[in-house]
Amino acid sequence: MNVIKTKLKDCVIIEPTVFGDERGFFLETFQSERYSKLANINLPFVQDNYSRSSKGVLRGLHFQKTKPQGKLVRVVRGEVFDVAVDMRQESSTFGKWEAVVLSGENKTQFWVPPGFAHGFVVMSDVADFEYKCTEYYDSSDEGSILWNDPDLKIPWPIKFPKLSDKDANAPKMVDLK
After folding, report:
1. Is 131 known to be catalytic?
2. Pick from 82, 166, 64, 168: nearest CA to 129
């Protein structure tokens, strides 16, 4: 597999090795020893999630306040513009973001470490999105950042996304306590 460092400390893009021919393909989506050695992902995963969203749906930017989750994300079908924002105040990349296009075709994965906000927007007609988490989800611990926070300047590829009320009314990063 190919591990690509990003401008964010600890956040990496992973291009898995894909074995394929006219019959189809095979790839490992996670292998503990290899991901530890090559991508420095050393936390145990405790929960796997799967979502399906239609074109223009934007989910995020979400984070857990006191029990931050690391997420290894990928798209099985379709295509998304995926974003991570470093919320670790002690980090040299605090307040910075990284984005990557994930698709069923490119099979790329994105490691979003604990302490980051995460979100994505669907660019295809439909997208099936899977992610492994290092902490259990707790709805009472969830926080959000406004998807189009003007201080972040994320170049989302869609102007008028379909948002939940929670995401549409999320605070700017500067307004978080």
Report:
1. yes
2. 82
